[in-house]
Amino acid sequence: MTNKLEQETFKPLFISRSDICVVLGMKPTTLDAFIYRTENFPEKKGRGKYSRKQFDEWCKSEGLV
Fold it and tell me: What highest taxon heads this organism's lineage (predicted)?
């Protein structure tokens, strides 16, 4: 399955909550509960966006990539 984010020619510094839903394959409410329960999930930087670098590192540490 190809992912919308992998097809971009560049990666912005921040990743939005909706993009994280696409990457993890979760509904927004499920994602909110998942983030709340996961202690080591990257912190929100503002306006519903997360650091792409921290999110990518978290995915690697969790074995999602």
Answer: Bacteria
